[in-house]
Structures are given as structure tokens and as C-alpha cells.
Amino acid sequence: MTILITKYKTGIDLPPLTTSLNHLDGENSLTFPYKSGDNQDTFSTTAGVHLCFVNGGNLILTDDTDTFTVAFGASNISITWHSRINSLADVDDVVFVFNAFAKPTSGITRLKYVATSGQTVFSGNDANGTALSIQDSSIQVFKNDNFLDESDYTLDLPNNRVTLSAPNAAAAGDIVSMFVFSSIGDQTALDNATTAASDSATAAAASATAAASSAGAVNTGVTASANSATASANSATASANSATASANSASTASGHATTASGHATTAQNYAVKVDGAIPSTSDYSSKAWAVGGTGVDGSSGGGAAKDWATDTTNTVDNTEYSAKEYAIGTQSGNTNGSAKQWALGGGNSFSPSTAVSGGLYSAKYWADQAASSVANFDEKYYGNYANDAAAENAHEAAGKTVTVGDLYFNTTLNAVRYCQVAPSGSGSPVGTWQSIAQQDLSGFPTAGFTIAMSIAL
């Protein structure tokens, strides 16, 4: 598919990002409309072929499970962020390069030029010694991290040269960055050709080996004919000896049969016996250790595999509990609590208000406490409002009471204000509010000076 470049500005093409776009559920999705002429049929659905540039290339991400995934709908594109390292803040420029690579293994070359005054032509090696090589129009150009449209420059493919238009001429020290995309050839065809060549070489080697073996077989046949006569003479003697050996073997076989019968009974006991130990041993069968049996169930240091997995009524070996009991059980003897109790709450009802063990509570209990703390914070800090009356009215409209010490941020004064005297009376009276003054710290000693004086004294 053809490479498509789509540029967006937050606050214009996209809503302003009030919070960073990160990997957390509910905070990692961004949806934006198609540009003119784009639709879902013009984009490749192969993972790893799309790129994202943020603020002139400061962040470059490929479409994979560690960074972000992209879905193309009927009228818009949805980006879902997965990266735990990078996040997308409220930036000016977001540039998506769709269908950047023919395959996920394709590459990208970044070049950086430091411009001279009025420079418009860029070619040859960049500041890092990388040569500019242009195969087609698959290139992105930025000046001082600002994305340039295709109309802002021209390409000279035969001479590997980029020329900026006159209005975009660089000043001395400007940084002109370029991203050149390249696609590999048909990997399937390359793999098939390599395999065919390898198979051909293997077949030739096999043919040579077969020819050598055939010549050796002729010589062996001549020798075999001579040896056959001698073998016939020896065969008669061997036949006489064989008769005697057969008689001895019959007696030996009878003894082996008796021994084998005894081994069969022992093997059966080791496999399925569940009514006690194997005779003449202190061992128990595989079945007893698996599902239970006399001498295994409830014995010290014993217990069947099934009991260790699922028993939630007793200890397995008179001391320890099963895996299921430690996971979801409620036995009173298990004073350390199960995993389910530590998650939800103590007791048989898994109540968050019931301690799990030793006065300690479950994760849900502390989560509820944390949520309550957030609600209490909302009682004290109102958020952003233009004036005192707007802050009070919004707080009271939410069913809350304005009290001394409450805070809000005044967007008109750009200052945090606190309530000195709460409002009283009917209607919408305004209490007394005071801004928290900013302090001039310029006269304070630096951190280094303070540390030096502390050491000296």
C-alpha cells in the first residue's frame, strides 16, 4: 500500500489532552477522524508497519504490542497506547505515517543536518556521517522539530538532494532532520530461492554418494560368493550344536516364566494397590499416592496428590493444608488466611470489615479506605473556578458545605485561594477568601551553599 502521512494538532484536529495519554486502562485511547481522501481500505492491517512522530520526531514508535496498536474504523482511527515507558502529553504536533514499511522488518534511516545561514539544499553526509540516499518519496523532513509538508521542499532523486522552498530557508544553527523509509524485497521469494538452491546442492551430494556406494556393492558381491561355500560347511556343525542348546533353553525358559509371574504381581501392586503397603516393603502404589489409600491418607508426611490439591475440610498430613484451602478456603485452623480472604476480606463471608489474620485486613478493605480518602479530599479542594462565588455555588450544588480552610484555584488570578470565613445566611452569599501569596525565594541561599555551611559548622 502507498505510504500515507497524516498530521494532527491537539486543540485543532484533536481535542486538547487534559491528561497524559499513557498505558493505563481508560487513559490510553485516542480517536481522531480520517483526513480528506483517507478511508479504512487505504491502510495496511499488518502489525509493525506504521509509525508515530511526536513533536517533530522526538518520539518514534512502531505498531507493536509494546508500544501501541491501531484500528481503522468506518470514519476514524483509534490508537491504543501500551507502553509503560513512553506517554503522549498535550503536544502541538502528532504525525502518523501509515503503511511506512512493506513488512514489519523494514527499516528507517534518520539524518540530522546543522544548517548554515540561508541554506536550502541538503545532500551528502549529515552531522553524524550518514549519507543521504533517496529511493522514492518515502521521506519526512523536519526543521527545528517542526514537520514540513511535501509542498515545503522538492526532491532530486538522481542526485539524492532535498531542497527547501525559499520561505523555509534555514537560519544558521537550525536543525534539519530527515527520516528516510526503505522496504525490503519479497521475503517469500527470497526464501524459496534459497531453499531451492540448498535442495539442489543436497541432491547433487546424494547422487555422488549413491554412485560410490554402487561401485562398492559390486566388489562386495564377488567376495560374498567365495565366502558362501565356507559358510555352508560351517552351517552343518552349527546345526548339531543348536539341537543341544535348544534342550538347555527349554529348561531355562521354564524358570524364567515363574520369575516373570512374580514380577507381574509386584508391578500390579505398585500400580493400583490402595489397601496398604506393597508386601515386604514400606512403599505405596502410584494410585494410592495419586487419589488416596490406606497408609497414605492423613498420615504424617503423607497425603495423596488429590488431597494436596483440593481438600478444604481437613489438613492433608495432620499439619499442612491443601493448595485449594490456601487459595479460597475458610478453615478456622488456617490462621494465616487464604488468598481469597487476603483479597476480599476475612471470615467465612469474606467481609472487608473482618480482619484476615492478626488484626490485618484485606486488599479490598484498604482499597475502600483509599477511595474514601479521595472523597474526603474532594470536600476540601474544589478544583478550578473563575471567582469565589462560582467556587462556592458549584460546591454547594454538589450537596457539600463550604467550611473554613477549603481551597480552590482561581483561574482569573492564577492563584490558590482558601476560605477564611465561611458564608452564612440565605441565597448565595460569598464567604471571605484569601489568596495564598507566592514567596520570593531568590534571596535564599542555594542548596550547595547550604550543604557546604552545614558541613563547615
Protein model, in words:
A 4-stranded antiparallel beta sheet has the order 1-7-3-4, with no helix packed on it. A 4-stranded antiparallel beta sheet has the order 8-14-10-11, with no helix packed on it. With 457 residues, the chain is of the alpha+beta class. The protein has 8 helices and 18 strands. The radius of gyration is 42 Å and the shape is flat.
Features:
457 residues; flat; single chain; alpha+beta
Biggest β-sheet: count, sense, barrel? Answer: 4 strands, antiparallel
Number of helices: 8
Strand order of the largest sheet: 1-7-3-4
Residue stretches low in confidence (pLDDT < 50, at least 5 long) are: 184-205
Radius of gyration, CA atoms, in whole angstroms:
42 Å
Helix content: 25-40%
Mean pLDDT value: 78
Tell me the distance between the termini.
72 Å
